[in-house]
Amino acid sequence: MFKWLKKKKKKSMTMMTVLSLFILGACTVGPGGVEAKSWKHELKQAEDLKYSEEVTEGLYKQLRKEAEGPLPFSDALVKIQSLSKVEAMDLYLDGNNKKVRPSEIRAIVDGVFGIDLEAVSELGVGKQTGTYSDDVFQRVRKALSEEVSDEAIIDMAKVEVMDLYWETYDGRMAGEEMRTMINAIFGINLSGISGLEGTGVALFSKNQWISRYEHDLFVVHTGADDVDVWIYPTDYYKNQTGMEEIPQELETSLTALGFGYSEEKDALYYANPKGESVPDNFKGKTMGTVIGFIKMNDEDFR
């Protein structure tokens, strides 16, 4: 009988210990653990995120760090969605003290801008390697610590050139320096692309959509090597205006830049007569012309 009581007492003590540990564990989770679980759940449930989940999470953590008090995820998300792409990139980098490797930079560009630099490099599209600036050639040589020919650098994959370029900064680059590097190597002007939001101009380049929104009116489409570019109206424009062609006023302005109608493309078309990638100043004039026209006629497209 005493043995039975002893066993029962021991079993009861064991159950009490387990119960105590369970209660203690529940208490130690605390509001912080619940909060973490809550915002991560909100992130998973969020729809139409402007940036990737990984980038959105990083931006939230950085905003929470900067906040003087608690920051609900829903409030932070409103702020995140309102950030321009350049602002989002820089804020994300702030959370990493700007110490990111080239592969991480490419992942950030994909997460913020939706641009796959790895694919651009693999396809060999974008800025012609023969038009690299002297700065690119010099930085690659500095990273290699040897005198290599321009031809050898031109033959490198763009991601390899980017990796070597990055090394000359000793692993620490500001966002603006990263964007300069990407434009110099890939011919992708991230600052300019960030500014396209809300302008009504979509951009297709390097065999992928670089910038596109629901209410864009015109598409600026560049060839694989950026040697040529053509412009045509979107379906949204056609539905809003009932017109199939680019307006005469805009066509006249683009013709002054060297564009002409291409029956093959069914669009206004321009090709650099030198057979080289179209320079940034021409891209700027082209975009400025289209955006300026949209601003002048904004009410007609509403």
Largest sheet: 6 strands, mixed
> What series of H and E elements makes up the topology?
HHHHHHHHHHHEEEEHHEEH
Q: From the structure provided, what is the oligomeric state, counting identical versus distinct chains?
A: single chain
Share in β-strands:
5-15%
Count the E strands. 6
Query: With helices defined by DSSP (H or I, 4 residues minimum), what is the helix count?
Result: 14
Q: State the separation between the terminal residues, measured CA to CA.
A: 90 Å
Q: Going across the major beta sheet, what is the strand order? A: 2-1-3-4-6-5
Rg, please? 27 Å
What's the shape?
A: flat
Low-confidence stretches: 1-32
Helix content percent band: 55-70%
pLDDT averaged over residues: 86
Query: Helix- and strand-based class?
Result: alpha+beta
Descriptive tags:
302 residues, 14 helices, disordered N terminus, Lipoprotein, signal, alpha+beta, 6 strands, single chain, flat, six-stranded mixed beta sheet
